[in-house]
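Quick log. Single chain, no ligands specified.
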Amino acid sequence: MPATLQEAFHFTVLKEHDLELYRLAQQTRRHIMQDGALSAKTKTLMAMLCDAIRNRHTAVPVLADVARAQGATEAEIAETLAVAYWIGGVHALNAGAEAFRDADARGHGVPVRGQEMPSNTDIVDEA
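-> predicted structure:
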């Protein structure tokens, strides 16, 4: 079952209890994940790599689909996951394989161009 994009719990709590900190955190996330010296696509692939190493099975396919929407090829996703395996071991490979599970059935979960891109902190991992 594909992961669901929704606001992460800590952002929901911040929004309720400290609106200013919530706005700052969202602004920081947008600033970090936009194109800069590294492309937004590269940053998304890096986030996917980290989530594979962290064994976040539901986050990996969502970030893979975001990377696809940003123009990542299947080869780029696979190579990123190879690095995750090299650094994180077999559990990273296991979680990373989720990037390819039912990708076509999900319609790649691609956001509409101009829609705000999620980061790994925006994905609820129910595993």
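The two ends are 11 Å apart (CA to CA).
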